[in-house]
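[09:14] KT: can someone run the structure on this one? pasting the chain below
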Amino acid sequence: MMDIKWFIIVNPVAGNGETAQKWHEIEKELNQQKFDFKVAFSEYKSHEGVLAQSAVEEGYTHIICVGGDGTLHNVVNGLMTCPKSIENVRLGIIPLGTGNDWIKTYNIEKDYQLAIQIIQQNNTIFQDIGYLKLDNTKQEVYFNNLAGIGFDGHVVYKVNNYKKLGFLAYLAGALVSLAGYKKARLKIEMNGTTIQTKSLLFLIGLCEYCGGGMKLTKNVHPSDGLFDITSVEKITLFQLIRNIQGLFSGKITNKKFVKSYKTEALKVTVLEGDTAYIQADGELIGVGGFELKMHKKALQFIVPKSKS
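[09:31] RB: done, C-alpha cells below
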C-alpha cells in the first residue's frame, strides 16, 4: 500500500456517533497496514461530496468512505458531479452506519478490520449509477443502491428520526404507516409504454438490499445497465405481516401483488392533487415526479474478490 496515496472521508456522526468513537482504532489499523493517507472529516450534511471533489482536484484516485449508506450516497454524488474525470477513481468503504444496505450486495463485512483487508486487495468492479432529475426543484441526484417513490419514501420521511434502530425503524414505520397511507396516482413512461397506476410502492433497484436488509427487487445486477423495478399497487397489513420473512428473503417479489420490470430509463409523473415522497439510498430527496436515467458502469468500487 506504500505506493498508493489514499484520501479518507470520515463522517463522524454516522452510526449515531459510532464512527467518531471508532476512528482512533481505524486509524491505528490503517497505519499498521502501511496505508499512506490523508483524512478529512465532514462537518455538515452533504459535506462528504464536497470533500470527494476536492480529493479528485488534488489528484487522488483512491478514496475511502467511512460511514453508512448516507455517507456513501453523498460521496457518490460528489464524484458524479465532479468537473474532473473520475475514470480512474477507486472508491472503498469502511462501513459504520446503521443500515449499511449497499455493502450487503457485495458481502462486505461490517467489521472495520475485514473492510480494510478488502480495501488492501484493491479489487474493483465498475457499477452502474442511477440519475434522478426532480420535476419540482430540477434538483439532480445520483444513487448507487436503490431509489423509490411512494410508500417507501413516506416511510423514510416518517422514520428519519429513528434511523438508529436500522431495519426495525423501517419495518415499524412501514407497519404503522400502511393503514393511513394515501396512495398517489402515478403515470409511468418506460420501454415505449405508459402505465397509469394508483401505486403503493414503486422501487428502482441497482443493488439488492434496502430498509436494513430487505430484498424487494427481483433480478438486480449492479452492472447490467438496467434498473430493476418493483411495483406494488395494493398490499394489506395482514399480507405484509404474513410476508415479513419474504421481505428479507426476496420471496415477496414472487407474489401476485408484486410486478417487476427492467428498464434503462423512465419518467414518473404524479397526477395533480396527489403527493408522493422520493427517496434515494434511504435519503429523503423531495416530492413529486422525476426523470430517471442510467449511467452505465460509471463508478469503480473496491469490493471483495469473487469466490467463483
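[09:33] KT: thanks! DSSP finds nine helices and 16 strands in the chain.
[09:34] RB: yep, looked fine to me
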